[in-house]
Amino acid sequence: MFSLGDLKQTRFYRDAFADGELIGEQRGEEIGEQRGQQKAKEKAVPQLLKLGLSLEVIAESLGLPLSDVQKIANSANNN
Predict the structure, then answer these.
(1) What pLDDT shows up at residue 74?
(2) At residue 33, does pLDDT exceed 80?
């Protein structure tokens, strides 16, 4: 009978496992990059408000929903 231990010894299994690890790593990098870009945009909102830009202009410029920009602005005003 073919066991899991036997399967793990096959080249097919090792190659498939390595491919899975690579795909997982790539997805993790993509998610991390997206989160970093989002954080950078959120950090820019208070700075742009200080420059006198409207919430609407900031939202459009950064590609953020107006509701998100309003929340960030409210949070910045409360601190």
Answers:
(1) 93
(2) yes
